[in-house]
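Limitations
The structure tokens in this dataset are predictions for the assembled complex, not deposited experimental models. Users should treat interface geometry with appropriate caution, especially where small molecules or nucleic acid strands are included. An illustrative entry is reproduced here so readers can see what is and is not provided.
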Amino acid sequence: MTFRQPIALAHLDGTQRRSMSTIVEVHGLCKSYGDVKAVSNISFGVMKGEVFGMLGPNGAGKTTTMEIVEGLRIADSGNVRVLGLDIKRNSRQIKGRIGVQLQTTALYPYLTVSEVLDLFGSFFPKALAVDQLLGLVKLEDSRRKLCLHLSGGQQQRLSVALALVNDPEILFLDEPTAGLDPQARHSIWEVVEFARQRDKTVFLTTHYMEEAERLCDRVAIIDYGQIIATDRPQELVTQNFREEAIEFDLAHRIEKEELTGLTGATNVVMENGKVTVYSTLVPATISALLELAKKRDIQLTDLRVHRATLEDVFLKLTGRRIRD
Amino acid sequence: MKSLLKLLVAHIKQFSRQRAALFWTIAFPIFFILLFGAVFGRIDTASFNVGVVDQDGSPVAAGMVAALESVEAFKVKIGDSGGELDALNKGDRSAVVVIPPGFGQTISQGSRDNVTVYYDVTQSTSQQVVLPIILQVVDGFDRAMAGAPTLIGVDAQSIQARHLRAIDYLVPGILAMALMQLGIFAAAPLVVDRQNRVLKRLGATPLRRSALVISTVIFRLLIAVGQAALIIAIARLVFHVPMLGNWFSLVGVILLGTLTFLALGFLMSAFAKTEETVMPMLMVVQFPMMFLSGIFFPVDMMPDFMRPILNAMPLTYLGDSLRQIMVGASALHPHYVNLAVLGGWFLACLLGAVRFFRWE
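Predicted assembly:
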């Protein structure tokens, strides 16, 4: 796995890094809706040319954060600079240079796919050709279809194509693959790869671990409106785990202490009958576990072992799983 | 500018691809005119049935009958008093003229005698049209009998122009209704676009909001002018509804009226969150106006306590204004009052919309 230049730049000293490559800068961002704190005191940076992911469960504040950065919402406090410009003062200028895909945008039902792309293109000083955009999201065959007749996956791809219409310097994708079938998901991932190849910056939110691991150069894990960790996905895993994860479903009650006492077990997380035991000595832990199960006449179902993933990182840091 | 044009084209394409929208803006008003025209138009245009009861039978009376028969717009039916009054009651006669016994003799002696005219007060055409013609006929006959030379003729055209058939009254009303609907129904797509986050998505581009508003307004004004042209053309070709006034002032009033109701539509869209709430809201605003503002029947038919409501409604003034310009109907309000009230409504709604409208 190779990381590209902007990541390498992270090793330079702070000031230089900021002036050279930070394309989105967020400092002390706060936003409340009534009594609910959606985002509390978030700071992070996105570097030019990277794919930056914000990972967290629904309602964690991902969308709010992203929409403030896009200039669609006003923060209660904090500073946001995009492309070196202040979002409060230069919102329109910034909007011309970024591409935005929103969650659940129903489009003009009585315009065709080509017509919508052409219409949106006219909003920007420069725009990619409609044919190229259709090719990027594989909608060539649906160009004459009314948006009304598009499937969910096609609508989502059109929505991504609209975000690409002005050949943006930063591409914002908010849950781009939520609810999509694997095929449609892959075509969206290809768009992200395309943007990466063209040295574009991509800022996406997701609650799919696999997506974050596969697409993102760096991931910020967000929960309850706060960022709890930011790093490269592999770094996040190795920083948090030397161990591997043993997972199984448990029909009976068992005390957590009994599992913590297993040979080699370092940590145990139990949630809704699903148990994850982290271990540095997997074979020994498993045999101890099986022995315990036999002795107590407990059924273990769906037993599996895997290397730690971002899911495990999230679980370790928050005590919860990310769920739809 | 480029995006404004594209947005306008997009509006037109979306509009022309929706059968329901096409129906409501084009077919519905035409249907209304044809329906009302079929009900009221034919009776009026053909002729009026006037019953004549000659209880005298003298040559003088016969001359009177002949004079009435000579009126082109009258179909004179001669019968007995009971039968004719019965027919009047059933609505088969617009008026019944009764020549009393001894009429000829009295007149011949140079004395005065009266014919009696029965008419139905609930039939406005009888009062407005038939009665004046009968009076004129009687008057003319009177002079002839007296041997006075007819020095002053009456131009028959002027009588035609002054009287108002039901269809003449209705067509400007239908036009006003169509413009009102076109205007306030602009609220619906706006609310839907906000609900579906189309407005939000547009807000993520450098597109100026003014371009969005202006394109909607231009689009609606274009439809208004097209719709008006269609309504006027049909009214003219099928029912011979005249267009007496100035075309420029007509277009001006059409534009002002549409703008006023557009502003009202925008204002309403500020208070509805979903498509399900905006539709009943539009109905609540639309129906009282349709039936109380005198676009379908004259306001003097309404009870007095409703006058304040009537006088508050912008549609009253638009209908009155269009009626004055198109068919020369007598004014409810002077023209400048109509324009001032419409303008006032426009400004008030506009300010309200600017104040309360939310893009998200």
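Some entries come with short summary sentences. For this one: The two ends of chain A are 29 Å apart (CA to CA).
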